Amino acid sequence: xAIDIGTLAPDFNLKNQxxxxxxLSALRGKPVVVVFFPFAFSGIxxxxxxxxxxxxxxxxxxGVTVLAISCDxxxxxxxxxxxxxxxxxxxSDFWPHGAAAQAYGVFDEVAxxxxxxxxxxxxxxxxxxxxxxxxxxxxxxxxxxxxxxAIG
Length: 152
Prior knowledge:
This protein is of the alpha/beta class. The protein has one domain (13-151): Glutaredoxin (3-Layer(aba) Sandwich). 29% of the residues lie in helices and 25% in strands. The protein is built from 5 helices and 9 strands, in the order βββααβαβαββββα. It has helices at residues 43-54, 56-61, 74-84, 99-103, 142-151; strands spanning 13-15, 21-23, 32-36, 65-70, 89-92, 107-108, 113-114, 116-121, 127-133. The strands form 3 sheets. Strands 5-4-3-8-9 form a 5-stranded mixed β-sheet. The protein is globular and about 35 Å long. 38% of the residues are buried.
């Protein structure tokens, strides 16, 4: 079960696709959307992240930082980002395996990957909106628009 709206978002410190450490707590002062995705290079994940890429201005216009997280190694995330032109951070929850996804309540033990959990975190680090879909079910991008409108 995903974490509750109105709670403090669990902190994490993960490597992005360039091997740089990104801590959620270091981003306090501005909103962040955390997008857990199961597998780099998979069809649904590619479609979802391309939709974020193609609409990145919606997030930037509201000052929202996008962090996409999978259990893939950061080298895989680098190849994935390079192939599809993702300019936002793709973070590796590789080791300890799935620790961030577990903290957010979206780790699928059977698949060994994150379910499609998305969390909008405000400037104070409080979860203001979330959605969770099973691994095989894409998120509706309209949900992002609704969440951004609510904080805008």
